[in-house]
Amino acid sequence: MKADSPSFAILHLFATGSYGLRQGLLQIGVLSLQKGQSVLKEWFINPEAEFGRSVQKQSKISKEQAKSAPTWQEQKAEVQEYLSSFTHVFFFQERHEHIWFKNYILAGMPSPPVCADLAVLSSFFLPHLNLMEVGDLVALSTAAQKKPASQPMPVALTALHTQLFKLLEVLLQKIPSTPEDEPGEPTLFLQLLQQVLNLGTVYMGTAWRALQAAAENIETLEPLDLHWLTPSPATDVPVLPYHLRKLLSSWLPTVTDATVVKPRVDIAQPSDQLIHDALHAWYKKHGLPERYAQMEYSKFCNKALTDKGTFVAEAGTGTGKTMGYLMAAAELLRLNPGRKVVIATATKNLQEQVMQGEIPRLRFKGGLHAHLRPAIVKGKNNYLCLSALLDLYDELVVQEKGTIREGLSWLSLVLRVYQTQGEVEEIPHNIRAILPDTYRLLSEANAQEVCVPKLCQEPAKCTYARHMEQAYAADIIVTNHHKLLQLPPKLTDLIKHCIIDEADQFPDFARSALSMNFSLGVVEARLLRPLLGKNYRKGFLDRVAERVVHHAETETAQLVLDEIDSIHRDCDTIRTSGELIQALPIQGEQRWQEEVALVENGRWIKREFSADIEQALQELLTAIQFVAGKIERILRLLKMPEDKTFSRLETYKEKAAEFADSLQKITSDFPARKWIHVLEKSGQNWSVSKMPYYLQDEMEKLQNIYPSLLFTSATLYVGGNTQYFRNQLGRSEPFEQEVRYLSPFNYEQQEKVHAVVPAFIPCYEHKMAQDQKQAWLQTSMETLLKCIVALNGRTLVLFTSRRDMDDAYRWLYSRLPAYDIELLKQEGTSLWEIRRFRQEEHSVLLGLDRMWSGVDFPGVTLSQVIVFRLPNPSLGNPLVAHRREVEGGYFWSKFYYPASQHKLRQGFGRLVRREKDKGSFVILDSRVHHTARMQHLKDELPVDITPFHAGEDLENWLLKTLLPKLELASEWERRGISF
Ligand code: SF4
C-alpha cells in the first residue's frame, strides 16, 4: 500500500548472464529509507539459466542455493507488493538491471514507484567520482571499511545509500547563503538547481522528478541540515557574476604545500641492498611472495636513474615493471631530498594505474616512502578556463542568450571545476546524452584554446596554474609522452631523472607532440562561429557593431562598421577555400605529394593534388591574416581598452594571428625529407599537419634535459635486440646499457596459451576480386563466431582496420544474443566498454589500435584473443609511405617487418596478465601459415602455432581439447548448444 507522503527506498540487483531475456535473476535487495527505519529485504530468485562464475563469486551464492530458491513467477507478488509501498526508488542503472526493471520488476505493477538513476545524478553533481557501475561504489565502500564485502547485497545497498546522501549534501550544503552586502539576491545555485528540477519534469524523466521529490521531502530521509532548502526565490531576477565568483572561490581547492625545494648538486646512489630491503618490506606489507625478476629489474632501474646516460630495459609481462621502477625512484628520492623524478606513460590507463594504484601502495603508512609527494601533469587542454566560464555565464545567464539546457550544461561544467579541479577529460555518456550542449561549452571554455593571460579575469584561481604548482612541489611527476616534451623549462630545470614507460610507443607520440596542426573545424569553432554567430546566437562582430553605434563617435563608428563588413567577406573566403579542400576526393589521412583521382570535365583523371591544396591553403591563409589585421585596426580606432566587449576583440585578433602563423609554418618547406605533410579528412572536417620524420635532435635535447634517462616497456625488443626501437628514434649507436627481463610465465610448458591458425580460411589479399573477398569474409566471420561461442564470450578480438571491425560488429550483432553473449565495440577511449568487459564474463570486445597494448584484463574474463588480420603496417599511412620513400630498400627490414612482429607480440601479451591466466590465441589470418614472407611473424611469439586445415578440425579442437584445458567443458555441456 503506497504511503500518503513520499517514501523512499534504495534497490539493487545481481542479475545473471548478460542482457538477454533468457537469463535469470539471482538476487534483489531493497533498503527502506523511512525515518527511524532501516529495513533491508532480500530475495533470492532461482535463475532460469546458467550464471557465470563471476556472478557466483560476487554474490557469494552457490548454484545449489540458487536452485533451491523460488522462481521469479513464484516470488513476483511479494516483491512487487513491497515495492508498491514506496513512491520513489533510487538505483544505479546498469544495462542488464535496466532491462530487468522494465521487463520484470515493474512490469504489471498498477502504480510503480518513480525510479531515479543515481548514476546520472552522480555524473552531474559528483563528477570526480567517475562512478559507472555499482561495483565502483562497492569497491569504494569496502575500501573505506578496510574489509572485504562478505555480504555483497547489504554492502552494495549501503554504498548506494551513502552515494545518495553525498548527492543530497552537495545539493543542500554547498549552497552559498545570500551575501550580506547584496540582500535579497537569489543564490545562483538555488536558482539553477530549481531549473534542473523544473526541467526534469519536462525533459529528463524520472531521475529528476525523484530528485525533486527527495529534495522537497528531505525530512523523510535522515536528519540533514535543512535550513538551506528554503522555498525557491523568484526566478526572473538575473543572477549576477558576483554569486558565481563567490561560489567558485568557496569551492576551489587550495594548494597547501607549494614549496619548491632545489635539488642537491651531488647524488647519493641507493645500494642494491637498499633496493632489495625496500622491496622486501613492501612484499611483506602486502603479503606478496618475493619476485626475483622484479628485484633484478628494480636494481637496474636504480642504476639507470643514478648513472649518466640513456638506458633501456624490457620487462616482460608478469615482471612487476611498474613497482620495480617506482621503488628505484622512491629510494633515490628518499636518499636525495629535493630531487624529482618524472615518469611518462603512453596511455591514460597506465597513468591511472601509477597514480591511483601503485603509488598509494608504495606510500603505505609507516613505510619508508609514506611522505612521497606525487603529482600528475596533464596538457592544458584537459582543463577548464575559469575566465571563459565567467564569460559564458555572462552570455548565457546575465544576457539571457542561452537556453535552459545550455545553462544546465554550464552548471555541470562548474560542478566539474569544483569536483575535479577543473579537469574535463571524460564527460560521462549519460551526461552527454541528456545535455549535449556540454560538448560545445566544453570547447568554448577549454583552457588550451581560449587562454589569453592578459585578459584573464581570475588569474589567481586558474585551475591549470594551480595544477602546475602542485607539480613544482611534488617528488614524483607523472605525465604522458606528449606532455613530457612540452614541460616548461621552469619545471624541467628541477628534474634530472626520467623514466619513459611504454617506451615502444614513444617515437610515435614524440612525432605527434612535435607536429604542427591546422584544422578547419577548429578555425570554425574558435574564430568563425564566435565572430559570425550561428542559428539564434548573435555573432560577436554584430555585438561590436551594435555597441559601436552607441558608444563611439559617428565617424569612428562608420570606419569600424566598414572594417566589420570587410571581415565578414574575409570569413566567407575562409569558408569557401575550406570547402574546396573538403571537396577533394580524399579518404582518411593522405600525404600531399600523392596522387588522387579527380573528376574534371566529366572524366576521371589522376594527378598530384598538392597544387590544388596549396592554392586553396594560400587563399585561406591570406584571408585569416586579413581578419587579424582588420581586428587590429578596429582596436586602434576604438581605443577603449576598459570596455569589456571591445577588449574581447583582442582575443579574436590573437586567435586569428595564431592560426595564420601555424598555417604559414605548415605550408612552408614543402616537400622535404625531414617533414611529412599530411592532409586528413574526417566527416565534415579536414586538417593539415606537418610532422618531423627524424627525431635525433629531439632525442639529444631530451638527453640534455634528463642526464639519467630510462626507456622501459613490456615489449621493446624485436628479433632479440633493440635495433627496431633505435631505428625509430634515429639512433645509430646502442644505448648505455640494454637489458631484457623475460616474462616469468612459461607459456608453453605450463600450457598457458594454445595458439592456432584456421588455415582453411582463404588468404587475405589487398586487391581481391569481390567474390573472393566475400568468401574470405564469410569464412572468417563464421570461424570468429564459433570461437566466441565456444568460450561463451570471454574474448578480445583485435582489428587493424575500422572497416573490418564494423563488419564484424554487424555480423555478430544479430547472432550473439541467441547465446546470451554481450557484444562490445571500442569507441574512442572506450573506458566504459573496457570496464564492462572486465566485469561481464560473457562478453566479447572488438578493439582497434589502443586495445593491442596498454589494456589489462586479468582473470577468466579474457580467455581468448583473436587477431582478425595480421598487424602489418598500412602502406597508405603517411609516416609509413614517407619511410618507404626515404629508406628505399631498407624499409622492409628496418621498419615494416619489425613493426608487424612487435605489434603481434603486443596483442599476444593481452592474454596472460597474471600467474593463473590461460587461454587461446587465434590468428584468423591464414597468411601466417601459407605466405612465406609472413612466416617471420611467428618467430616473435613464445609459443608454436597449430594450423587447422578444415573447419571440423577446429571445432573438435575447441570442444575436445581447449575447453577441457580451460575447465569450461562442463559449462559447454550445460549450455546445451551446438555449432
Ligand atoms: S590564466 Fe588562462 S586558462 Fe587560466 S583562467 Fe586565466 S585565461 Fe583561463
UniProtKB/TrEMBL annotation:
SMART domains: HELICc2 (SM00491). GO terms for molecular function: ATP binding; DNA helicase activity; hydrolase activity, acting on acid anhydrides, in phosphorus-containing anhydrides; nucleic acid binding. Residues 280-563 form the Helicase ATP-binding domain. The keyword Nucleotidyltransferase does not apply. Pfam families: DEAD, Helicase_C_2. One of its GO terms (biological process) is nucleobase-containing compound metabolic process. Keywords: ATP-binding, Hydrolase, Nucleotide-binding. Belongs to the helicase family. DinG subfamily. This is Helicase ATP-binding domain-containing protein. It comes from Rufibacter tibetensis.
